[in-house]
Amino acid sequence: xSSFLRVNPSSTFFRPAFSVHSWxxxxxxxxxxxxxxxDSNFRIPLIDFSKFSSQVSSAEKRKTADEIVNGFKNVGFxxxxxxxxxxxxxxNVFRKSAEFFKLPSEIKNSLAWEDPRSNRGYxxxxxxxxxxSADADEIAQLRxxxxxxxxxxxxxxxxxxxxxxxxxxxxxxPGFKSTTLEFFQTCxxxxxxxxxxxxLGLDLDEKWFDDKIHExxxxxxxxxxxxxxxxLLRMEGQARAGAHSGELFHLQLxxxxxxxxxxxxxxxxxxxxxxxxxxxxxxxxGQFQPATPIPGTIVVNAGDLLxxxxxxxxxxxxxxxVAPPVEKLSETEGITxxxxxxxxxxxxxxxxxxxxxxxxxxxxHGKRYPAVTTEEYIVGRLKATYN
Length: 387
Known about the structure:
This is Fe2OG dioxygenase domain-containing protein. The chain has a single domain, classed as Jelly Rolls. 29% of the residues lie in helices and 17% in strands. It has helices at 27-35, 50-53, 58-74, 87-101, 105-109, 136-145, 176-201, 210-213, 230-233, 304-309, 374-385; strands spanning 46-48, 77-81, 121-123, 151-155, 219-225, 228-229, 267-272, 278-281, 288-290, 297-302, 319-321, 327-328, 334-336, 339-346, 353-354, 372-373. The strands form four sheets. An eight-stranded mixed β-sheet has the order 1-2-10-7-14-5-4-3. A three-stranded antiparallel β-sheet has the order 6-13-12. Strands 9-8-11 form a three-stranded antiparallel β-sheet, with no helix packed on it. The two termini are 38 Å apart.
């Protein structure tokens, strides 16, 4: 993927015609999609990560690291192909996620999210209001008027002695716990490798980040977007989730938007189903451009703390997810299809001091941000997000 993709929202490419995370697209179609750009100067690069992880040669490794860093500098997003996570593994997690969200409400509600420090548990439809507003009163008004129309399950490291995950009983969701925990570990290992590539691309020792991210202070979010009638989406301000990104504290809502994930840490690994809808904002024009799901890839974007850490050398870009094509029910009413995604929010260690990386100090302006710990920053953002 060397570009943003121009795709007609009514295209069947967006329609959930297949099972979760499965597509029937030939290689030619992939190449065509990957080379169509709305803005030739604003492209999401497609990066073959095996050239870094397999260490074919030091030159290939450095070249891949530079491609990753340049992608985060210019766009804030990259697509990783040959990333090392088998497709069968991803499909299995999607299946277990779908089974969980089909459980009765009383079971899911018994696992409810409780506080921002633990950031674990089930979040019912309407509880979260994702926005760039930092004003608590404004967020409360938005939540009452137009709640994000999605539900999620938040999962953290399972060995934490202070905060526990909220697991359903094995009899209610067979294999759910073991599958998600294995995937959590797999995503962490990929995070470590990508951060090593970033370190190399920033002229640091390859393992510079290792002792700052090894505690697995991450959050995995399973997301479900139920089908919704279009009259709900037409309500003023209604959205399944608002546009957001790093340090951009301004609200941008659209009646046709729904998902967006709060990216507060270093990286987000996003696994999309075939419905798609992810759009990324051009940093100069302000226009949102689509980042279409591409089979076999993971969408990776830089988060707030990585932007701060790098003194804004790496970009945390505003992004959103727009509603999929409407399935017509009558002359005046339609319904959007259901959708799933999995976001793995990679974070530094909770007590890690996020201060300007030495190689990113601006000679003219110095450090742009004061130092902050991971926990201070993330907990502060989460407190404003949930009621």
